[in-house]
Fold each of these.
Amino acid sequence: MNAASLFDQAALGNFWFRYLHVLAGITWIGLLYYFNLVQVPGLAAYGDEGKARNITITQIATRALWWFRWAAIATLATGILITGVAPDYMNDFMNHVGDSPSNAKNAGISVGMILGITMAANVWMIIWKNQKVVIANATNVLNGGEANPDAATAGRRAMLASRQNMIFSISMLFYMVGAAHFIENGDLFAATSGEANTFLIISLVICAVLQLNALGKFGGIKAGNKMLVIYETQKNAIITGVVLWAVLFILTVVIMGA
Ligand code: HEM
């Protein structure tokens, strides 16, 4: 074996960037689950005392958020690098005709990538933007300053986007891993480009409705809006995530099953 080929374009695109991508991805999604399943319910159980704990706000939450948002960028960057550097990835992605398992795989990885990109946008444009307001307010209050009246709304916007990301993560990871190792298996799935597009469009419309809902586009973000019931508890968000996965899985089988 030629040592140089361990780091040639094929190795970089197919292996190294993929490996870094999975490392960055578990860091990001691990912290997403930590926030949703551990920190938020943990602080809520403490009530005001929990919120006032300087150690949590400044020493832990800001560090966790740093890793969270940069791991999201690293996952996004390495994911895009796989598509650009792995030889023929883009070519294979764009050019399939007939009844092909590759059409089904491409539709699957497209859903995974679009969910991942939406989640990364949520991290930077909603969660982090609003968390900065929440952290600044908590630090200010701890130092004896005036409370910012907008902090509660900012916290709620961040919470809705974070729970939406938890909902998406279950399907996102299914298509990330499943596209190449499950859907590309021609015995199970094959699709004409028309079928693959149909699957893609229906899936993306469902996901877009959920995303708009998390942004409060259907009646605002206030508690009491019935459209937001899926985000009001961790349990509701997990159930919604599993139901979304089941719906997308059934669509995959019905539209693209061999
Ligand atoms: C942020 C946007 C993302 C993009 C653009 C992206 C892109 C990609 C691409 C192009 C692949 C290669 C799939 C193939 O072989 O055809 C891939 C695989 C994968 N991605 Fe992502 N991804 C993203 C987010 C994530 C996240 C958040 C995770 C969480 C862990 C993740 C985990 C994985 C895994 C486990 C694989 C499978 C590697 C393999 O088995 O070969 N990705 N991703």
Amino acid sequence: MTARYAASPFVWRRRATREVRIGDVGVGASNPIRIQSMTTTDTRDTAATALQASLLVAAGCEIVRVTAPSITDAENLAAIRAELLRRGVRAPLVADIHFTPNAAMEAALHVEKVRVNPGNYADKKRFEQREYGDAEYAAEVERVQERFRPLVRRLRQYGRVLRIGTNHGSLSDRILNRFGDTPLGMVESALEFLDVCEDEGFFDVVFSMKASNPQVAIYAYRLLAARLEARAPGRPSYPFHVGVTEAGDGVDGRVKSAIGIGALLEDGIGDTIRVSLTEDPVKEIPVARALAARYDARSALPLAAPAEPGAPWLADPFAHRRRETIESFGLGADHPVRVEAWLGPAPVDPEAAAAELERELAGLGEVACEGLLVDVVQASDVPRVAAFAEALAKRGILVPLTVGAPAELAEAVARVASQLVLRIDAAGQGGAALALATEWSFRVPIQELAAALDAALARSQPPQRFSVEAALPVHALRLLVALLAERGLARLPVALRHRADPFAEVETALLSAATDLGAPLCDGIGDLVSLGGFGSLARDVELAYRILQGARLRTSWTEFISCPSCGRTLFDLEETTARVKAVTSHLRGLKIAVMGCVVNGPGEMADADFGYVGSGVGKVDLYVGQERVVRNVATAAAPERLVALIRERGRWVEPG
Ligand code: SF4
């Protein structure tokens, strides 16, 4: 793949796209990143759907999607539109279509945009592993395209917009057979539909490439951006709707969304976003707004790109491969990405601080603090650090201690820090020779990073690891690893450090941490994650592990994949997810899906080990992987039946 998915990986630039107008709302080009969500009501219930849509719009949602599982639902979109207008709500509506081309044709008469899923619009999805010869494959593509063509003509006739919305996990058997369940398969599936649109002279198209695994979503969107660029080099491309699907709820749902959506927005990819939480959809809106706000602000302050290094920053931006590093003081090589907690300035009372730390560490339960960072700010702090290290050793707390110190104090710290890692500003490596290990931290604008690195290397031997403290850390880290590679230091570990903005709302701080740490982690950069400022050491450490789990790098808890629910859902998904979590959340390493319907649930639960899928009113089917093994269990008994199933398959462990 030679075409680029972004103008430069080292500076933030929004991907150049054409404007698509969805009713009164412009998407792409210089429009702000638009916020959207989806109703969870029964589409035939006009009053409930219009009410929920109004609440979404009042919360800041700019585009509202409504499921249209049948032609009857699609017909009712007209009534929902009328009721919304009666309430003074003009936000554009989008019909969400799976499996039912006739519903799409009807919906195109009533709403501004229609979303289709190429995996199930007219293609087969029967979980068959069938061989396709080239002639049969081509004939099948043609059949699907001809089935789709009438919709394109109707959309063009009525001035509507189309979203070609591919989902990982709901690819057709044909695509799976040829490309596997991969980002490439997702992209190929979408481009077959684009071919028809362009053939018909229809260009009001938006794309999405969603997955519940943020890594898969990131690579699929990047790959599609590169393929579209290759089709029409240098021309503004089609806008992207960005999201991580089935993200779940609570902190994990927000972390996973921020990693996937945030990483793509860092790439400049994303013209409209939807955060999919298994919660009241109104709660998605502030999360989406907080994610988008960082980048809308950046659009106003374009930055100059630094000179491109001569070495690549990543072996492959379309697949995950952790940057290869040497083993260095417990980091890098085959070690998992380590977790360090930031304690702030050197403690005034080292004994009391060590006792407090002992209590916090004891309360961490399953997760472990693997390193601590203390900052020295003045000379009087130095003996305190020595006393603190002694107090920790007395208590048997043996996690590595890193001491951060400004250049003028580095020498003094190095004398007391013979058993510690010394982290110093790369502008002055005074005490490096005395310390056991050093980390150079760069605090310069990205345009000055190369010169700062060269100046530091001219004064001293390279340290054992690096970090950056930049306003835009994702791009600075990419540049740092490329510069290191260019200077023959490609295999030295890199620490990722994030401090919560003390003035930010808690949720905004959480989303920023998940983006700033998750984006490089999904790129394969980072051997240590250091988080601080979330109220306590235990919270910092837990959140660091949740980010590592969201980025699919370490698994510390059960992973829940749950859909946001929609008009197809036949039970209260939020409450059901809570019931399933209550009995299974101690099963470390297991992936459990809770999905609202059998139409899309089994496909979209992707790589879950066990699935809990609504099959009818008050009924649930249970899955092992993609295989349905229990049918029509009453919902009241279903969580216990799921436990029994996990037990039968030998994956159960008793709580505690
Ligand atoms: S899986 Fe969930 S969100 Fe997707 S169509 Fe079914 S009920 Fe709706």
